[in-house]
What we know:
Elements: H1 3-16, H2 21-33, H3 41-53, H4 56-64, H5 78-114
Helix pairs in contact: 1-2, 1-3
Amino acid sequence: MDKIEALKKKAIFQAARRAMLENEMFLRDYVTYHLPENYGEKELIELNVLLEKIFDNDLFDVVMGNKTPEQFEGVYNLSLLQDISEFAWKHREFLMERKAAENRADELEAKEKKG
Length: 115
């Protein structure tokens, strides 16, 4: 196994160690499917350091959009938090669109049953 794959596996392991299930699930998805293509060995090492260091509440606030990455500048790696935040925003938008589509389908089905 090459070093990049080993670092990705370590990041997935770090994701699994989260105390908050939401953080674990989000991070696992981020590392497995959406890790920026430009991440090399250096960025993956820094990501693993971030995952070892970041508090669950801080990560949750960034993922949920309650706080911006800039609010943690000097505490955590700002560039990595910005990547995570950007992915989280897209992920939240996707989930909201999917939920809205499900609600529209449910409403249509209810109208058809009545009519």
